[in-house]
Each structure stands twice: as structure tokens, then as C-alpha cells.
Design brief:
binds adenosine monophosphate, 3 domains, single chain, Dna Ligase, domain 1, globular, about 425 residues, 5-stranded antiparallel beta sheet, about 30% helix, binds glycine
């Protein structure tokens, strides 16, 4: 099969690495890809959400399957775009329909879905622009801390945890007054849940589902969860508190009601459901849904999948996911992200990267790199590399990634030194 993978981050490098190992893979193209994806296929200069250009490429290059990495093409409706065109409808797109992608694209949609299907989540109220005064009065009486969420996609910046009413009112007003553009046309005020976070990834063909290993990501920029929120500075899998009992609760209270709810609401969903969960006294609540793999969670989950990913994707397409057994590597996996100084704010690109060839026993997933005219590696993004290691224990996996990341250098590079430490204790 000829595969077109969409996206350009570390998650897409992990997907490209895995897909290229499949006996089903004849040719792999990545749009737009990064320096690392080029090691496993051919990058094509098409934006991941340029549906027209993607369709043209698919038809002119005899593409047999499209694998969207990030949410943008899914929320833009790539699944429906293909299904609604005679010449494209037979080509599998591994992901939900536009409506299914609203689980990530609209927090208001996701909350209404969870309420309707009795899926545990934080209590909330939502307000539109014309209800700003009513919302401000509501905030006067809300317990603290509280959580504000812009309804739409806001590049990971649309969530504010507020510790004072003044802070909440200021954040609420600026969201509704256009801080995030149309994404803030509605704002949700949510109860703060105190607990432990974990991400659970489920593959679904619309009827059947398979659970992948759990992962925890580290969202803050600096050690001890300090500094600004980022896309994720590292991840580990498995997560110790996700034991058999906890997982049973997640299945009963969250996964099955979600799959059944989608079926009941006639929402086509043939892809990945990312459940961002908070365990409060070992009881799981949904903090958010995403419609794709996490980044950098993919860099610890994909290495743990021994089975052929394209075979799994084909079963998703054919509604026969119940027929596959997903073989998992029982070893633990940890990844540590090397980022550019200043990320997630302003940072430099084009710094020379050295030491990659000295890395041993780890996988190097490129997130933001490119090669210069002489073939030398340069940084080309905020998150630059993710160093993933598999080992018998999480401690060994973390140590291996730490040892290897120390061999890599580019100007102003930084990374967290405490990935996994909270779970190892
Ligand atoms: P989200 O973009 O929805 O993933 O939110 C970003 C982060 O905010 C989450 O990973 C949580 O750490 C935190 N968060 C979101 N909602 C809540 C909540 N209701 N209670 C506590 N923390 C939350
Ligand atoms: N690492 C968080 C995410 O991918 O949304």
C-alpha cells in the first residue's frame, strides 16, 4: 500500500517509523513531515490540513490510506471530505468524521456529549459573548480554584486554572472578547478536579475497540511542573496507578459509554480516541477528549506496540477490530523532549544539532529538525527531538533516555530532568 501520513511533529516521526516497518507498506509519504520522517519516507510540501492539495496528491500518487497525525485535518473534516467524493470514498482515512472530531474541536460539544451519556466529568456552565455579565456574576460565587476553557481549538492555550475570582474574571472577559478569536465565542467555567492525570488511548472501528497502554505526559516546561504549559516535555508508559481495577472503572464508566454514545448519536468514529483523565481518589473523570494520538505520548506508546500498525488500521477501516490481537511489548518506555530555549514562547531556529550519532539504545524521534545543504541536522521548531527508551523497568527507561539526551547538543537546548520521577517514587 502507498500511505500518506499527515503532520510534522515527533508523533508523526514515531508513526512514520512504525508504519515503514509494516510489510503492507510499499511507499510512505509524509505531508509536510520533518527531518526525521524523511528517514522513513518522502516528505511532500503540503500542509496537514490543506484538504484540496491532499486529495490531489492522493489521486496522483495512488495513495491507498491516509493517516492523519494531528487534530487539524480531522477537525477540518478530512474524513467527510473523502467520503463525499466518488473518486476518494474508497480510500481509508484513519480518524473520526468531522462530528466525531468535535469531541476535541469543541469543549462545549464534548461536555454536552458526556452529560447526555452520563460520563463522569467536572461540573460546568457555559457562557456566550452576550452572557458576559451573567458569567461574571456566576464567577463571584464559584469555589476556587476554577477552570476556564475556551470552547474551540486554541493551540493548547485555551485552558486557564484560576486561583482568585479577579484572575478568573479577567481571563473570562478576555476569552469572550476575542483573545483566542472564534475559539473563545463560548467559554466554559469548570469545577477544578484534584487528582492524578493519565492519558488512555483507545482504537475504535466504530463498534469494537482496543485499549492501548496508558501514558502520562509532562506538560509544564520546567522541572517539578513549573513554568508555562507546553505541548508536552516528556512521557512515560505504563503508569503505575493504572492497575486492573482502575482500568475496569475506566472501561465501565468512560470507554464503553463513549463508544456506545457515538453509536447511539450516529457519529462515525473510526480512529483514535484519546481520553485525558483525572483520577480523583482512584475514580476516573474525563478532563478532555482528543481525536488523535498524543504528542509526546505517541513516542512512548507506539514503540510498545509490537503488532503491525497498518494491519490494525486496515481492521479499523473494515470494522473488524475485534479480530485483531494487539501484541504489546511488556517493557516500559520513557521519552524526554529536547526543546529550544524560550519554548513555548519565542525561540531560535537553525541551531546546529550534534551528538545524534552517539545515541545508543534509544530511539530518536525528531519533532522539529531539518537538514542543511551539507546534510547536517538543525533545529527547526520549539520541540526539537524526543529520546525514547524501552527497558525492563521505567527507572531504567528514564535513565537510558537521560544518558542519551546528555550526548546531544544545540545552542540553548533544554529538557526536563524529572520525567517519570513522580511515578517512580
Ligand atoms: P486541556 O487542554 O483540556 O487538556 O487542559 C489542560 C490541562 O489543564 C489538563 O491537562 C489539566 O492538567 C488541566 N485541567 C483541565 N481541566 C481541569 C479540571 N477540570 N480540573 C483540574 N485540572 C484541569
Ligand atoms: N500531550 C498532549 C497532547 O498531545 O494533547
Amino acid at each position: 500500500m502507498n500511505i500518506l501520513l499527515l503532520g510534522s511533529g515527533g508523533r508523526e516521526h514515531a508513526l512514520a517509523w512504525k508504519i515503514s516497518q509494516s510489510p503492507y507498506c510499499d511507499a510512505l509519504f509524509i505531508a509536510p513531515g520533518n527531518g526525521g520522517t524523511q528517514l522513513h519516507g518522502e516528505n511532500v510540501q503540503i500542509a496537514a490540513d490543506d484538504l484540496g492539495a491532499i486529495a490531489h496528491f492522493v489521486l496522483t500518487h495512488q495513495i491507498d490510506m491516509v493517516v492523519p497525525g494531528p487534530e487539524a485535518p480531522l477537525v477540518a473534516g478530512i474524513y467527510n471530505f473523502f467520503k463525499n467524493r466518488k473518486e476518494l470514498e474508497h480510500i481509508p482515512v484513519i480518524g473520526p468524521s468531522a462530528e466525531g472530531a468535535q469531541l476535541e474541536g469543541s469543549k462545549s460539544f464534548a461536555k454536552a456529549f458526556m452529560q447526555k451519556h452520563h460520563i463522569p466529568t467536572a461540573k460546568y456552565r457555559e457562557f456566550k459573548k452576550e452572557q458576559i455579565q451573567q458569567g461574571l456574576r456566576y464567577l463571584d460565587h464559584h469555589s476556587l480554584p476554577l477552570v476556564l476553557k475556551a470552547d474551540g481549538l486554541a493551540a493548547g492555550k485555551g485552558v486557564l486554572i484560576c486561583h482568585s475570582t479577579e484572575e478568573a474574571k479577567a481571563g473570562f472577559s478576555s476569552m469572550l472578547n476575542g483573545q483566542f478569536g472564534d475559539a473563545g465565542n463560548k467559554v466554559l467555567v469548570e469545577e477544578f478536579l484534584k487528582g492524578k492525570e493519565v492519558s488512555i488511548f483507545v482504537l475504535s472501528d466504530g463498534t469494537h475497540y482496543k485499549i492501548l497502554p496508558p501514558a502520562k505526559d509532562y506538560k509544564r516546561a520546567y522541572d517539578h511542573d513549573e513554568g508555562p504549559n507546553t505541548g508536552g516535555m516528556g512521557a512515560v508508559s505504563p503508569v503505575a496507578f493504572v492497575d486492573h481495577n482502575f482500568l475496569l472503572r475506566v472501561v465501565d464508566a468512560i470507554i464503553e459509554p463513549t463508544i456506545n454514545g457515538l453509536l447511539q448519536d450516529h457519529i462515525t468514529y473510526k480512529g483514535i480516541i484519546y481520553f485525558g483523565l483525572m483520577a480523583v481518589n482512584q475514580k476516573p473523570y474525563v478532563i478532555e477528549y482528543n481525536c488523535r494520538f498524543g504528542d509526546p505520548e505517541a513516542q512512548v506508546i507506539i514503540p510498545r506496540i509490537e503488532s503491525d500498525l497498518l494491519d490494525i488500521f486496515l481492521h479499523i477501516h473494515q470494522d473488524t477490530l475485534n479480530e485483531v490481537y494487539i501484541r504489546l511489548d511488556q517493557r516500559a518506555c520513557a521519552t524526554i523532549v529536547a526543546a529550544s530555549g524560550g519554548y513555548p514562547g519565542q525561540y531560535e531556529k537553525g541551531e546546529s544539532i550534534t551528538g545524534l550519532e552517539e545515541v545508543t539504545d534509544s530511539l530518536i524521534f525528531h519533532a522539529g529538525t531539518k537538514r542543511d545543504a551539507n546534510g547536517k541536522w538543525q533545529s527547526n521548531g520549539g520541540r526539537v527531538l524526543a529520546i525514547s527508551s524501552l527497558a525492563a523497568t521505567l527507572t531504567h527507561a528514564v535513565n537510558c533516555s537521560m544518558e542519551n539526551i546528555k550526548k546531544i547538543h544545540f545552542d540553548n537546548m533544554f529538557y526536563r530532568k524529572d520525567i517519570g520521577q513522580d511515578i517512580l517514587l
